[in-house]
Amino acid sequence: MASRQIINFAPGPAKLPEEVLQKAQDELCNYNKTGVSVMELSHRSSDFTKIINNAENGLRDLLNIPQNYKVLFMQGGGNGQFSAVPLNLMNLKEGSTADYIVTGSWSAKAAKEADKYGKVNMVLPKQEDYIGIPDQCMWNLNPGASYVYYCANETIHGVEFHDIPETNGVPLVCDMSSNILSRPVDISKFGVIYAGAQKNIGCAGVTLVIIRDDLLGHAMPVCPVIFDYKIQAGNNSCYNTPPTFSIYIMGLVFKWLKAQGGAQAMAKLNQRKASMIYDLVDNSNGFYVSPVDVKSRSFMNIPIRIKNGDEHLEKIFLDEALKQDMIQLKGHRSVGGIRVSLYNAITMTETEKLAVFMTKFRNNHQ
Ligand SMILES: *Cc1c(COP(=O)(O)O)cnc(C)c1O
């Protein structure tokens, strides 16, 4: 596969490492001398069992997942987990209450969905714009909550937690869809972590769930069987046909990550990439503005406005970027502007090309 011209700064589905695509291409028609594609393998075959076990072991190794945690490969995406989390955990304690820390669109949507299944306590005061995380001394945590929920990285607003919230023993549930494996993380601090694959660890179709085993077996009677964590855990995520090809791709991404030096190496690279863009923004004399509080700025998704939201100029920026083969830089429709997504697969060289373009653009349009 010739090196690809296009630089894909998409927020998700996002860029995959070229080595992963190459490997998938090489094996596409004849996987491991089976004579068929992974897509055509039985999910009960020994070949596929190896694929799913390899993916799980790759992840366990990369994140040092303790033995008392299960790894599940589910479907329904991040939105599916907005429902699955309350369906499985809302009744953990009497009163069926859950704490939601809302710092952007995704956690807001999760809280809205959870409200169907129990009482949702909003931990933070309602915010006009999502541009930061209020100090923990201002949080209203309920010690009787079944769980505390938050989103580690708000993909649309570019607000990221750089510390893990303290919950005094209440199980912590985290949506890591857009920053899982971008840095090391202490799994033992969490009750549940979940992540849709299509941002940082694979292609759409599979959703990873990492769950402490004492939290299995509390699903509401109405919980759909395929969303029941205990049933999925008891069936090696094969209660029904899992998204076999997506799991295979995820396994290749984990192998690639290991070869790059794992989460530690990614953290260093991601910090360098993000700093390059933030520094450029902060030193642009207000030409570029990143609205997020410096303490909570995301290393993965950087929302930027040009000249305080000059939509005409922002459109020119996007058009000119496209001419330089840089795609998917448009901000989410709810916030506008530019959004630079710098997931693991985006290289330093690609980030430098964008930085050069941004500097030239500023010089030409200031
Ligand atoms: C993309 C995203 C979601 C939604 O994922 P779907 O797979 O489209 O349902 C949820 N949370 C975060 C943080 C996301 O980035």
UniProtKB/TrEMBL annotation:
Q: Which domain of life is it from?
A: Eukaryota
Q: Name one GO molecular function term.
A: O-phospho-L-serine:2-oxoglutarate aminotransferase activity
Tell me the GO BP annotations in alphabetical order: L-serine biosynthetic process
* CDD domains (alphabetical): PSAT_like
Example GO CC term: the record gives:
cytoplasm
InterPro entries xref list: Aminotrans_V_dom, Aminotrans_V_PyrdxlP_BS, Pser_aminoTfrase, PyrdxlP-dep_Trfase, PyrdxlP-dep_Trfase_major, PyrdxlP-dep_Trfase_small
E.C. designation(s): 2.6.1.52
Could you confirm whether the keyword Thylakoid appears in this record?
Answer: no
Q: Which reaction does it catalyse?
A: 4-(phosphooxy)-L-threonine + 2-oxoglutarate = (R)-3-hydroxy-2-oxo-4-phosphooxybutanoate + L-glutamate; O-phospho-L-serine + 2-oxoglutarate = 3-phosphooxypyruvate + L-glutamate
Q: Keywords assigned by UniProt?
A: Amino-acid biosynthesis, Aminotransferase, Pyridoxal phosphate, Serine biosynthesis, Transferase
Cofactor(s) recorded in Swiss-Prot or TrEMBL: pyridoxal 5'-phosphate
Pfam families in the cross-refs: Aminotran_5 (PF00266)
This protein's pathway reads: Amino-acid biosynthesis; L-serine biosynthesis; L-serine from 3-phospho-D-glycerate: step 2/3
Taking every annotated instance into account, which residue ranges of this chain make up the domain Aminotransferase class V?
7-354
EC class, as a word, reads transferase
Provide the family line: Belongs to the class-V pyridoxal-phosphate-dependent aminotransferase family. SerC subfamily.
Q: What is this protein called?
A: Phosphoserine aminotransferase
Q: Record the organism.
A: Paralvinella palmiformis
